[in-house]
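Late entry, evening session. Most of the bench is empty. Finally got around to the prediction I had been postponing all week. Sequence below, unchanged from the version circulated by S.P.
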Amino acid sequence: MTKPQSTRTHHPEPSPGTGRTGAVGVTRALGVVADDAKPSGLITLSGTEMWERFSFYGLQVLLAYYLYFSLADGGLGLPQAVALGIAGSYGGLVYIAQIVGAWIADRVLAAKHVVFIGAAAIMIGHLLLAFVPGLIGLVCGLALIVVGTGGLKVNTTMMVGALYPEGGAKRDAGYSIYYMGITIGAFFGPLLTGVLHQNWGFHVAFGAAAAGMAVGLVQYAVGMRKLPAGTAVVPNPLPARSRKAWAGIALLAIAVIAVAVAVGIIRAENISDVVALVVVGAAIAYFAVLLSSREVSRAERYDVIRFVPIFLMSLVFWTLLFQLFTAFAVFADTKIDLSLGSVSVSPTLIVTLESLVVAAFTALLALLWSRSRASRISPVTKVVSGVVFMGLGAAAIVPFSIATGQSMPLFVAIAVMLLFAMGEALFAPAALSITAGMSPRSANAQMTALYFLTMAGGSTLAGRISQFYETGSEAQYFGTVAVISLAAIVVLALIWRAVDRTLQRRA
């Protein structure tokens, strides 16, 4: 099936030796042309996301440790299973918040401004974690980070898609450049906070995450005026008569959550189950709305149906990746020999190395997709291959987790991270590009939020299943995770092919 041709004006390719065309607002990077964007548009969005990921992963890599380390070690002393469930659920809530952030950008406040407010909220949240000790600082700080990330992440991603209205290999490469910024931030954040935690404790590390987001906020404030004009427009404004009703709904939802926590319906022990139910309900509701909307054409509706197996593939992928911050975080602390000569490195270094390799792989793949015959490889093939690499990485842990003590050498852990990194570099940019390509024109931000909902589900599932992780059963745990994930991706790939062929015949 082919989509209706775009009515947008086509800008001519630049002449040899130049990076510009005769049109205003065209930028070129790694062979990528971004129409309707000032030259710094991609830099602004990539840089903002880089600093957001710096602060996000700088916190997340330490969060499980902060929750279950003893009070004497600077932690909160929670039971390990509860701590892992909370860590996974926090990640889930961050991505559930994308739904709210996308809706606000579509109905209330333009994406450009939602991102600014979100960045400010994230910075304040990290400051609370840094300067307010105990559970009060934890709850208030995480709540602000969840709200802020909900406004920032989905809308920066959506605005990158707006830079490439013609789609194709250029958009794939553009998202690879964008994802490169993500991986750079995801590398330096945990690296710095890990070192600071080792030497000065958790709260100094959280302060570094706040400083990183402050830099990102300033950078975005300077560059946001150069973004395309469409990012300052609310696509589907909420009628004035409906605003009070929606404000009442929001206040009622907050009240219901507060009561549920107060009476013990929502507790630390069952938070992952609650978040998982929210993810399932939100996903069903989102697909139902997109498939029933009168503003979605028949061709767009077929694309939404095609997206269902991609959605499930993404859920498998993120469940695997977020093991790095739940079960694998404990594994790194207890089963990996972290000695490097006479020096003992932090367990956070393992995740940091994965992010560094992802950045390198993503840069290489961006060149490969845009400048060679490899550009013919379909995004779905990249997605499936990414999940396979992740599953193989989980399987590679098994032989080195059978013996007692620190049974995995550091070089083997690095090799496992190479498999994870290749999987992430293949999967994430392609999945973002598929999401943008299959988005109905009337619901771009909502479709992007639906993709981020797979991250919510993946993080929540990672926290939930990691509660079955026990000392002495590491091999069984990672072996089961590997087998189930590899089997699932094979089945989903077959379903995708069958659905695609059926819909092509109907088109």
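Two things to note before I forget:
Strands lie at 27-29, 32-34, 339-340, 343-344.
The two ends are 6 Å apart (CA to CA).
Will write this up properly tomorrow.
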